[in-house]
């Protein structure tokens, strides 16, 4: 090296020396996906920058400006006054920012930016490097939602089969961490193999012997999870097909192969020839080469694999700058389920095929690609930051930068690849008004490649005269309802400056939204249609501003007066008037007032009203708007009236508008409730003795054609509930039991229910009769209806039980005859009973103890045998329609009264007669109340056992016999039939007709007492058609 070369080298080093006073570097670390306005750093605080000028000792206002390329969407923003760095609305996505880079934990993803500090006296260039850390924002995914694996049936236990790995764009612990096999059915397991590169490869383990003939397909799920927080995961269906045996798999000579190929290799260039061998013969030795599932789609597009020969060739142009390393997994399969695997690493080597890149970012914002400088700007004014780069590597990527020709500008190196474009001397507008030069970047490759960037700089003159208006106040007038774009006037001003400093632009001030002003000519036009009723006068300002730097301006006031026209129709205060009046209001009463206005003045404001389509139901005053009725209102006939009203003003031509009027007739309480249920005052409901308190036994329902509170109904029991057995819901009308019915409650109950509305000022009401029949059954409905008809003679304020004596006296003669016949029957029964008890005394005592406390029981087997014997010995007389059976007698406490106990058999023709319609009710039938005014009222025994009741109108043959008896207070019915009733084996109607032979009777427990002769008689009739009875 001679002396001349040494000096050149020293000069070059001096030119490239970095100025540490103005070039500094900061490094920040952030997480990706941060929201907007998250603070990143503070430049003056982190660099300890002082705002004090060291030369003068005065404080200065520093301006921090981000150097950005035109059109770029910045990822961060810098506060110009404080130097704080914040995130922007542009999302920082690490996977997108560093796409194509290696995702290893140790590789950093970052981006760089530059910030300059102005003015020139404090100028600094800050290079900021922001490292983006990964967050877990991507879930690991399998290459396919369904993974198919074929496994031979002779596979040994613990054999392993590779499963395509899942990929996760996240890095480190946020990447793939764990695999899990779901529903492995104890046949398969899962193992994870970690490669030297840190990849986790799942392998399927066979845990049981496979038999394709038994099961050839297994469907499972495989789950992959990452290690992020929150943890993300995905699943894929793993379908294993059991195939026949091929027990030798191909083997590659080399499992790991690395090759190099230049990036300018032409299409068709061979990359590598892979070769695998198979110990099998025939079709099992035919090897087919395919890419593995982990090979990226982009790699498959660049390289082709011959399925037969295993040759990998280039099928598209390569670009090292896009991807430098390609990892290719090649599988060699002979048709078996376990292919051989080889990994080929293809390194794309660099060639000098990329020219340098010049990134020109202006510090002074250009206008249409030209930088404008003032001739008074000082030396070293910063114009732009230039960054040069080259995608090539090594020597091919080393770049130098310079200006092509002599100009009053130079490049100042701040980093090894960044330069500042500055002014090198004072500028003279009168000498040269415009500069255009090229910046050249050249690399060191052979041959060398270069790139140029054109810079245009224009100088600007100074401005010192503001525009002047000819008139400081401009007054105008215009009629309303004008057309848009109507010319109003031309506003002009003058400027004593020259060039662009004398170019004046006009601008409207605030409150001028109804006007347009041509910025260059000053022509003022109307941009909207004026409406005097909305605004009568407009006052605003006009600004004249020149194009100097800084611009100078002046203002003038403009007053525009709007002239009136007749352009408003009458306007109702409501589009739909609604008035409310009470029904029965007399004619010619005032029902409402219509209000209408008109924004116009004078005659245009005078409004008259008229009705359009009312049919003379109402009269409208045309000036006051008062509406009066011409009809009497009845809401039940018509609840509302609707018509249209027209308002016409006095303008020429006249304007009009219409509105709808609705007269709503309010309800007056003039209708009584109408009963819907019960359907009549003679219907009844059955109340079983087993009914529980609170159960609904009947319901009353009524309606009222009035509305509102006039239609709200209240239900009350006003009579017939003196025992408080029932309760009615005042709202729903449901009648419920207050307490469980007792045997003394058996019979017919008449409730007088008052249904009243809540009308004001006077409430209207309706009465309804509700008959409730308390008993287990309603066997003889026609008699119940007869009792209901009789109760109609009883006043409503009296209980029907108080008037039962007249109904009993009508049958007095019949009862006396029945008592005489019953006495004869008792004598015969006593005689038979003595004989039977003497023979079965011990058996009778045992049976008596076992029957204590029981209400019903069937005879034992001995009784059944005795029945059969008595059937043979005894024959029913054909001439008699009634057979007397089972009569018992006990000693009474009172010798005056004899207790009579017995049953009467009925012929078959009476058994099948209709019982009449009655309501079975929701619960099982119970006994009737004793004081109810029907046939059941004669049964006043305290026993819970029911009685069958003959219809009172049933014709009785002269040959039929009736026994009238008074039943004891405590008695037990003993049935002998296998089936007491065809309707139900659990029926409590123990006296219903039956097709089987039956027996019945009453057995006393202890001393029995008869009623006084003057007390009511009670009937109890049981059926025992051809039914022999055993006497205990």
UniProtKB/TrEMBL annotation:
Entry keyword set: Calcium, Cell adhesion, Cell membrane, Glycoprotein, Membrane, Repeat, Signal, Transmembrane, Transmembrane helix
Cross-referenced CDD domains: Cadherin_repeat (cd11304)
TM stretches of this protein: 812-836
Basic residues composition-biased segments: 866-877
GO molecular function: calcium ion binding
Signal peptide region: 1-23
Superkingdom of source: Eukaryota
Region (Disordered): 849-882
Broad class of where this protein is predominantly found: membrane
PANTHER family assigned: CADHERIN-87A (PTHR24028), PROTOCADHERIN-9 (PTHR24028:SF248)
Protein name (database record): PCDH9 isoform 6
Organism from which the protein derives: Pongo abelii (Sumatran orangutan)
């Amino acid at each position: 090296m001679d002396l001349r070369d040494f000096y050149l080298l020293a000069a070059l080093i001096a030119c490239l020396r970095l100025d540490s006073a103005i070039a500094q570097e900061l490094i920040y670390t952030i997480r990706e996906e941060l929201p907007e306005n998250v603070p990143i750093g503070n430049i003056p605080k982190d660099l300890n920058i002082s705002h004090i000028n060291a030369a003068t000792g005065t404080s200065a206002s520093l301006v921090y400006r981000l150097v950005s390329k035109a059109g770029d969407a910045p990822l961060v923003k810098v506060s110009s006054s404080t130097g704080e760095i914040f995130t922007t609305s542009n999302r920082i996505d690490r996977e997108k920012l560093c796409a194509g880079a290696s995702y290893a934990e140790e590789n950093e993803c970052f981006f760089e930016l530059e910030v300059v500090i102005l003015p020139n006296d404090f100028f600094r260039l800050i290079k900021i490097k922001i490292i983006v850390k990964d967050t877990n924002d991507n879930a690991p995914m399998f290459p396919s939602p369904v993974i198919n694996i074929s496994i031979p049936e002779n596979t040994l236990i613990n054999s392993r089969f590779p499963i395509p790995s899942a990929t996760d764009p996240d890095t480190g612990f946020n990447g793939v961490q764990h695999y899990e096999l779901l529903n492995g059915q104890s046949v398969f397991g899962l193992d994870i193999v970690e490669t030297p590169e840190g990849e986790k490869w799942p392998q399927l383990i066979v845990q049981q012997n496979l038999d394709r003939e038994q099961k050839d397909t297994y469907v499972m799920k495989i789950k992959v999870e990452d290690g992020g927080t929150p943890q993300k995961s995905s699943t894929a269906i793993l379908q294993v097909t059991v195939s026949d045996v091929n027990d030798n798999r191909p083997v590659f000579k080399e499992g790991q192969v690395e090759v190099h190929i230049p990036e300018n290799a032409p299409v068709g260039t061979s990359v590598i020839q892979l070769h695998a061998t198979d110990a099998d013969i025939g079709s099992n030795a035919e090897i087919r080469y395919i890419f593995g599932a982990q090979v990226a789609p982009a790699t498959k597009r660049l390289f082709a694999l011959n399925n037969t020969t295993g040759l990998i060739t280039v099928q598209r142009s390569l670009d090292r700058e896009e991807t430098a390393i390609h990892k290719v997994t090649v599988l060699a399969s002979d048709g078996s389920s376990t292919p051989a695997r080889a990994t080929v690493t293809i390194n794309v080597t660099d060639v000098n095929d990329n020219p340098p890149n010049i990134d020109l970012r202006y510090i002074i914002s250009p206008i249409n690609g030209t930088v404008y400088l003032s001739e008074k700007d000082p030396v070293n004014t910063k114009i732009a930051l230039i960054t040069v780069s080259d995608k090539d590597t090594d020597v091919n990527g080393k770049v130098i930068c310079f200006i092509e020709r002599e100009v009053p500008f130079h490049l100042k190196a701040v980093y090894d690849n960044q330069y500042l474009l500055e002014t090198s001397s004072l500028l003279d507008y009168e000498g040269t008004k415009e500069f255009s030069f090229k910046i050249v970047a050249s690399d060191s490759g052979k041959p060398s490649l270069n790139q140029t960037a054109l810079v245009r700089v224009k100088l600007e003159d100074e401005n010192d005269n503001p525009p002047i208006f000819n008139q400081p106040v401009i007054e105008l007038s215009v009629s309303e309802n004008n057309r848009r774009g109507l010319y109003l006037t031309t506003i002009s001003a003058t400027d004593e400056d020259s060039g662009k400093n004398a170019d004046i632009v006009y601008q409207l001030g605030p409150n001028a939204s109804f006007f347009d002003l041509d910025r260059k000519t000053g022509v003022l036009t109307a941009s909207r249609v004026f409406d005097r009723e909305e605004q009568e006068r407009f006052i605003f300002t006009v600004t004249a501003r020149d194009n100097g730097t800084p611009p100078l301006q002046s203002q003038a006031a403009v007053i525009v007066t709007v002239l009136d026209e007749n352009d408003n129709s009458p306007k109702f205060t409501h589009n739909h008037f609604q008035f409310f009046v009470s029904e029965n209001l007399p004619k010619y009463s005032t029902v409402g007032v219509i209000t209408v206005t008109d924004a116009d003045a004078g005659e245009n404001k005078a409004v008259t009203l008229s009705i359009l389509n009312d049919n003379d139901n109402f009269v409208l005053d045309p000036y006051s708007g008062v509406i009066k009725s011409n009809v009497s209102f009845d809401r039940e006939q018509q609840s509302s009236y609707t018509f249209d009203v027209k308002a016409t003003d006095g303008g020429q031509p006249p304007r009009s508008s219409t509105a709808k009027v609705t007269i709503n007739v309010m309800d007056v309480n003039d209708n009584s409730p109408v009963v819907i249920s019960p359907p009549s005052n003679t219907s009844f409901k059955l109340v079983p003795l087993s009914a529980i308190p609170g159960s609904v036994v009947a319901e009353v329902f009524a309606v009222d054609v009035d509305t509102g509170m006039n239609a709200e109904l209240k239900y009350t029991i006003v009579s017939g509930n003196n025992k408080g057995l029932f309760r009615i819901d005042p709202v729903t009308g449901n009648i419920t039991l207050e307490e469980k019915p007792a045997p003394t409650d058996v019979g017919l109950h008449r409730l007088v229910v008052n249904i009243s509305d809540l009308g004001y000022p006077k409430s209207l009401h309706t009465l309804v009769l509700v008959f409730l029949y308390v008993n287990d059954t309603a066997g003889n409905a026609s008699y119940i209806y007869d009792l209901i008809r009789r109760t109609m003679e009883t006043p409503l304020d009296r209980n029907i039980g108080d008037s039962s004596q007249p109904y009993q006296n009508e049958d007095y003669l019949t009862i006396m005859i029945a008592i005489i016949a019953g006495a004869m029957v008792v004598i015969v029964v006593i005689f038979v009973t003595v004989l039977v008890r003497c023979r079965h005394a011990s058996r009778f005592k045992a049976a008596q103890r076992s029957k204590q406390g029981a209400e019903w029981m069937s005879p034992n087997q001995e009784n059944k045998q005795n029945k059969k014997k008595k059937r043979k010995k005894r024959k029913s007389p054909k001439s008699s329609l009634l057979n007397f059976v089972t009569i018992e007698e006990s000693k009474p406490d009172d010798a005056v009264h004899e207790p009579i106990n017995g049953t009467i058999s009925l012929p078959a023709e009476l058994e099948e007669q209709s019982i009449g319609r009655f309501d079975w009710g929701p619960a099982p039938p119970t006994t009737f109340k004793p004081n109810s005014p029907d046939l059941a009222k004669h049964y006043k025994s305290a026993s819970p056992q029911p009685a069958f009741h003959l219809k009172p109108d049933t014709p009785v043959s002269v040959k039929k016999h009736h026994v009238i008896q008074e039943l004891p207070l405590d008695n037990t019915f003993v049935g002998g039939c296998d089936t007491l009733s065809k309707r139900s084996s659990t029926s409590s109607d123990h006296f219903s007709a039956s097709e089987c032979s039956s027996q019945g009777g009453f057995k006393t427990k202890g001393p029995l007492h008869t009623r006084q002769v003057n007390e009511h008689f009670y009937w109890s009739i049981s059926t025992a058609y051809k039914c022999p009875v055993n006497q205990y």
